[in-house]
Design a protein that fits this description.
Layout (H helix, E strand, L loop, with lengths): L1 H44 L6 H23 L6 H7 L5 H21 L1 H47 L8 H26 L1
Helix pairs in contact: 1-5, 1-6, 2-4
Length: 196
């Protein structure tokens, strides 16, 4: 019936509108994610960005070397060379400790001297992570909207299955039904005239 076609046409319009909105949101989220990644890469091109994590890692290595040196040279005469080589295979325990100490000082100095760049990098990384979450959500919304449209299309075809007609859009099928009704009316009128 025309009421069914009108209702299904409204459903289709609503679902396609939702799909367009979801695709637009995905495009925006994707663009934002690419833009943030590009900004972070440009920031990194100016040189390595010191981080609290890299400082913590170097300090942990320095402290582990100090514990070995203390065990070997301050607390007793334990041979710690083998254990120190596991932390730095290219240098003696004392040299490895000195390098780790200098490295942690350099990173700490760089963090202090380049605090604005470090903060910007941290903010960009956080924003990039949020953008990735938003992009994933937008992808899921697009998938759901596509599924809804596919479900509608399947239902639309089911409405027409018994007629043997491969349906076009609701608007086209509404026009087709009108033409069909006119043809049927003309045939009925012709049959009545012939019967007279």
């Amino acid at each position: 019936s025309r009421e069914t076609i009108d209702r299904l046409a409204e459903d289709e319009s609503r679902l396609r509108h939702a799909l367009t909105g979801a695709e637009d949101a995905l495009t925006r989220a994707d663009n934002q994610q690419r833009d943030l990644a590009s900004q972070l890469a440009a920031l990194a091109e100016a040189g390595p960005i010191p981080s609290r994590e890299s400082l913590d890692a170097v300090r942990e290595r320095r402290d582990a070397l100090w514990r070995l040196l203390r065990r070997g040279f301050v607390d007793g005469h334990e041979d710690v060379t083998h254990a120190a080589r596991a932390l730095d295979p290219d240098h003696s325990p004392a040299e490895a400790f000195e390098r780790a100490m200098v490295g942690s000082d350099e990173i700490a100095d760089a963090l202090a001297a380049d605090s604005a760049r470090v903060a910007r990098a941290r903010q960009l990384a956080n924003d990039l992570e949020a953008a990735a979450v938003a992009t994933d959500g937008a992808k899921r919304a697009c998938d759901a909207a596509r599924e809804a449209v596919a479900g509608w299309q399947s239902g639309w075809r089911d409405v027409w299955r018994d007629s043997g007609v491969a349906p076009r859009s609701p608007k086209e099928m509404d026009g087709w039904l009108r033409e069909r009704a006119q043809i049927v009316m003309r045939l009925d009128a012709l049959e009545r005239r012939e019967a007279e």
